[in-house]
Specification:
By secondary structure, the chain is mostly helical. Helices cover 90% and strands 0% of the residues.
Amino acid sequence: MTIALFLHIMSAVIWIGGMFLAYVAVRPTAVEVLEPPQRLRLWTGIFGRFFPWVWAAVVLILGSGFVMIGEMAAVPKYVIVMAAIGVVMSMIFLHIYFAPFGKLKRAVAAQDWKVGGAALNQIRVLIATNLTLGLINIAVGVLGRMG
């Protein structure tokens, strides 16, 4: 159970922390200092490096979460809420990866900046959603244990 909890928390830190950095620091700076073609290339590179970590995080978070649930005699409601949010977040990530990220990569390769910008904007909205859900999940996990 200790190893599962460690993997669970480390994976959440990597995923949620990465989204926080991307959304709060990198995105506004990239908008300020880069023209759209360079910005789209930057994000393609960032996501290309970050998303393998997210894949690992998704597998470890879901796997370790369900291992910990399986070891509980009675599953508290806050744990069920956390699991549901985690599944939704994972589904959103899968959509990001297979739909707008694919469009972004193809658009950048074709130098179609309009299509790339639309794909990046869709990713931005979905990452904002996942970041919000991730922060809510942290609150549920911490506050649920207290109540």
